[in-house]
Amino acid sequence: MADVNGSSKMEGKKVQKSLTLLVEKTNKDLFKHILTPLTITLGDEFQCLAKSDYDGILLLIGIEKKILELNLPINLHYVLLNGEITTKIDTSTSYGMLGNGLTEARKLLSSKKRDRANFQFKLCDELKNKELTLLFKIYHQISSKWNTKDYSLIYEMLDNKNNQVVADNHKKSRSQIWKRRKTLHIESIDSVFTLAKLISLN
Fold this sequence. Notes:
By secondary structure, this protein is of the alpha+beta class. 52% of the residues lie in helices and 14% in strands.
C-alpha cells in the first residue's frame, strides 16, 4: 500500500492526475511483478499484491523510478507487508479484498506517529525488515533533497552508466554529468537498490 505524502496541502486534481498516471504506467510496465494490479482505493492512495517479497521490492523501486521518469510532483509513503488474504484473489483488481494482512497494512499506512518511516516493511523476517527500513531511510534522506527539475536526468543516470550518452541526451558535457552523479549521490542510490534486492532474496 502507498499514499501521497502531504496530499491535504496539495491541489486535489493534481494529486489524482499524478496518481492515476503513475498507477496506469506501473501496471503496464511492471506487470511481471504484480499478482493483482495497483488499484486506487481512495483519492490519494493505492494497494496491490506483489508476487513475492522480492517482487515487492522491485515494484517499490520501480514505482520510485516511475515518479522520476514521469516527472510527477508527488512523493509516497509505502507499506510492504507479508500477510494473510482471506478472500479469493482476483488478478484483475486489488479492490474488495479482505484479510489480516490488509488490515495490518492499512493500520501502518494510516499511522500518524511523528517517527513514522516513509518506507515501512513487515515481512516474515524481522532482521530483513530492519535492514530494508535502514536502507530506504538512507534513500529517502537523499531523494527528498532532489529537485523535480532534475527528475528526468536522475532517472536516466540511474538506468544508464554511460556519462557521454546521458550528456548528449540532456545537452550537457560529460564532465557535467560526472559531477551531477556525485552531487545527486546516484552511486549511493544504486547501492541501496542493489542491497535491497539482495536482502529480499534471502
